[in-house]
Amino acid sequence: MRTMLKMGWLALLLAVGCAGRQDLETPDYEAIYDVPLEEMWPSVREYFTEARLPYREDRGSGVLETEWKQEFGGSKIAGYWHRYMVIGKRETPTKSKLWIIRITKTVNKALAQPGRQLDWGTSRGLGPSDGINSGAPGDASSSLAYSVSVEDDEDRLAFPVGENAFYVDSGQGTRDLTMEWRVFRGIMPKLAKKQAVSAQQQVAKAPGAKEAPAFTECGQSILGLKKLAKAGGVVLLGEMHGTQEVPRFIAQSVCQLVTSGMPVTVGLELPVENEERVTTFLQSPSGEVDWLKLMEAPFWRSPYPDGRGSEAVANMLEQLRQLRAQGLDVAVFVYDHPKLSGQKREDALTQTVLAQVKVAPQRFHLVVSGNVHPRTAKGLPWDKQYRPMGYLLKDQLDDVTALDMAYNSGTAWICAADKQSSKLDCGVKEAKGKDNGDRFFVHTWASANQDGYHGVFYVGHVTASEPAILKGLGNPDAAPAQEPASAP
């Protein structure tokens, strides 16, 4: 058995590389431990303890469940929460494996199961004793907006409460191979008595950082993302401004890449005049005064807020700041030139992005903008000679991939021309898309389409995100966010 264990560990070393490199993509097959379940399980407990993921365990069954934890904890804006159920399985008498189920919940109803709002029959809900409760939202016979059964009530009361509370409206549970391999790579060195080598520690540590976290929660793995991440590579994301989901996609992408060893620079389509403010905020402790300095820029107070100054974007900056604060190698720059228009603006955007890429060829660059700029094909319907930023960058860089946004229907904060007044009308508007499930993914085609896009990035159901300034972000007199209560 010891020979098998050594061979398994040798295979792992070959997979991640003796020089500390590892394939960013998660294998699509199970991790098998060449040890019995009883010998492997104590290391599983130790891993989750060291990762600061408190758990409850059914002793003797090989099952544990972590407490609820917020993605990018400490967010000022209601976000997403997760927990893991870890199940030890006996493959053979001498081999074992783990199944890890990741459960995600949020106040956003994007993850709600189809038919959740329907009344399927007689309810066992907790309602007044003198009335019949249908369980439907707003039922006058119920003292609760959403009735739950007696069996569900214990779990409902165990959820986090306060500003970031969530209920049974939105959730999903899926097997998480990324987490399974992360645990495998974390505990195999100890099982093999090779404490000096740990592939799990190969993160992109920021220059000058004393240490980087052994474990960082980055959300459910984004399918197809890591295969595009290469040193010197540029991925251009063409978005529809004003959603909650695109900034979350960016934050999760960055987190998943830097914790896999790839340093990442994010380019945001914000005015270049904000460069110093954004950099200062990312290096700050994120106190109320730091938020005020970020938000006092005229950009956030535009009379026509087009979605780039949304609360989701502000929250994304906070999430990237948290990753930097942990010692992970994350950088951000802004590159918009709003005083210019037409081709002159595209030229200026290109030069600003190009300068950032050339000065840091060892980094991966993720650049987001409205969906005209990333196109790598010449011409627009109204101007056949138009050369978008993506088209110009493609001629000067070796690795440029343009991805168009794909999404399920929902809402977005959009500024559109009012036909009657000829002025911009900004607000929450309906967005029509196509349902491809609720999981983020990246998909590339064999060749670029007629618009110059090489594929799509999919963000599921979209929900509008209002301007950050309307939410009071940056107000030093605002009440602090309430800390969520932990589950008993």
Automatic annotation (TrEMBL):
Signal peptide extent: 1-21
Superkingdom: Bacteria
Keywords from the named record: Signal
Chain positions covered by the region annotation Disordered: 118-139
Protein's name according to its UniProt entry: Haem-binding uptake Tiki superfamily ChaN domain-containing protein
Organism: Corallococcus aberystwythensis
